[in-house]
UniProtKB/TrEMBL annotation:
It comes from Gopherus agassizii (Agassiz's desert tortoise). It is a multi-pass membrane protein. This is Uncharacterized protein. InterPro entries: MCP_dom_sf, MCP_transmembrane, Mitochondrial_Carrier. It comes from the Eukaryota. Solcar repeats lie at residues 2-99, 108-195. Keywords: Membrane, Mitochondrion, Mitochondrion inner membrane, Repeat, Transmembrane, Transmembrane helix, Transport.
Amino acid sequence: RNSGIPPYTPEVNKSAGGVVLISPTEIAKVRMQTQKQSHYSVTASHLSKPKYQGPVHCLRMIAKEEGFRGLYKGCSALLCRDCHSFATYFLTYSILCDWFTPAGKNKPDILTVLLSGGFAGVFGWAVATPMDVIKSRMQVDNLGQRKYRGLIHCIRVSVKEEGIRVLFKGLGLNCIRAFPVNMVVFVTYEAVMRLAEALMK
């Protein structure tokens, strides 16, 4: 039975190369999500503008204030998050497709793809969330009053101050989002692959 997804091999780790492109967009997203909204100023009769007024403006401000390296703050945690989570993601999908597909059938049916894709997304985020939490904390760490000296220090301080549960903050929401999203991702993937195979015959 061939689901179209190969078993895990070291080649999966090549996805880590995408971190170079993803990191700036990740830090812009986190900075904009955590910045305070416009507020009424006591010394002025108008609303003060938020620091970041859009993703491009956010990237420009980070580069200006923190240098080019600022765009890659938390990159080590992002790399750790994506390498093992993608491996888990694809491996889970392949295993579940094999498991749910009846003997003698070469391709999984749509229900199998939906369930396998949904659970693959959940398992992927289950292993990704701890590093995602650390990544976000490193990305919003104030440069002027820097709290974390690096990946390991951030993990140690976070766990010491808030307990091991801090590494799983947001896990429930990540899983709730991941299930339907990855159902659609893998159904689309399988449909495209089967269409390509049909056209090549």
